[in-house]
Specification:
alpha+beta; Immunoglobulin-like; 3 domains
Amino acid sequence: MIRARPIARFFSRSATAAALVLAAGASTVARADGPVLHEPILPDPHEDLVLSASVDGELPAAIQTPSGVVTAPDPQKPAGAREPSYAPEGSPGTLDATKFVPDRDTRRPEVMPYDDPFTPSTAPFKRLIAFDAVDATYNLVVKNDRLHAMSTHAEPSGDGSDEQFFANLVVDVAPQRRVRIPSVGPGTRIVHARLGVGSERIGFRILRDGAENWFIESEKQARARLVMELTISRAGFGGDFSDPKWSDLPSAPSLPPNVQASANIVSARLGVSRALSPRENVTKLVGYFRGFVDSTEPPTPQGDIYLDLALSKKGVCRHRAFAFMVTALGLGIPTRVVINEAHAWVEVHDASRWRRIDLGGAGRTLRDPLGGGVPHEVPADPFSWPPGATKGEDLASRARAGAKQSGGGNSGSGGASAASSASASAANASGSASASRANGNGPNDPQKQDDRDKDERPRAVIGMSVTSSDPRRGAPLTVRGEVRADGEACAHIAVEIVMRDPKARGQEVVLGSLPTDAKGSYTGALVVPRGVPLGEYEVLARTQGDARCGRGVGP
């Protein structure tokens, strides 16, 4: 039950009191006036995992992930008329992803659309469109667009370095018409896959190009469901960047002479060069481009859009990723820009594999709460973030909390050339408000103590109350409160809600994040994970703040 204390607590069932149990579901209520005669037996993914159960013959019924055991989607579920779908390229509303056209609209957008097809959820890092080369007009392109068929019977590595995911997509397929589909990251492999309508299976093949863009082709026309089990090296999501020699790196696409000349100007300004190691250069580039800021005043056009963006340090995620890639390729470091409808980032090769690097600049929140289940736990970020950074994961944490953007409306990321719908998509892929949950950079993380000591922002003071009277595992916990700094409201920042076991130091469960409104208030219902053990927990709120409000933990 919840007691009216400054810090709320959960209690397990007592031998002498009729307390409510933090139970597996709303149907399992402990009663003091008699035994429970009937209790539904819920599906047990742990049992499915132990028994190696499968669905539809091939797909495992459950997989083990760092985020916990997750169950497979139903491959025979009918494709709903309102479900987001992926259609053949060239269809109305689809992206012309043959190139990315840079723009100077450096405003931060508000509410972003997003389809979340993966479990665990990788939002907002769905890998949908990737570019690995630059042409003479600064458009990003795919160097090798030749398609190769992928195996749908890959094996996960046996050394435990891989992670598994389920994909659940609705695709409008047709013979001889390719449909672009997303993957979870660079180097993703398909362990099992099924395309079908109900119990009917449909023949298909999945292809990829030189930048690892994925496409599906089908033997017949249908609105079908594609369910896949995927495996990928955990290192593809980030983690420590290796320290290779220049000769160890794979060959990077050359820049056109005019682009290379501009890249040399930026490299000289940033202090990067071939005299440094690849790792030293990447570290400097990440620090520089994460320091960009969104702006309602675009850089003054000087005839070279790359120089305008790179030297002004203005821009949201797509501008940062674009300028980073041009600069890195100018040094000979293999780099890709990856975009979807909500965000953009880079992938950099460290001589062993491609690694995802988020440069920040994401939008304020996603349009709808995500339905992809548990969030994916990414490796620790080896690169530092400046105070008030706008990380991509803020988008997902707010959407998981079911938050809607206060005040509504897109601030207008726009500005993309009509010559490319892919650019229009990237124009929406932009910045976020404040940092909600930085990897290795939480308010109580000693790893970034030096950065906090230098933080001159006023400390955020967080008030919080838990209004749920019947806390249960798998059920929502309702919280509300406000955040202020120096007596003023901290508007439009992310507040992370955490359950912490006071008897197990350092162990906590992050329930999700809620956004504050224009008055600094937040409210919402966050689901308590089913796997949380019964016991006593402190419920805390914390924030990374933004440019005006500093970090804080409360109440």
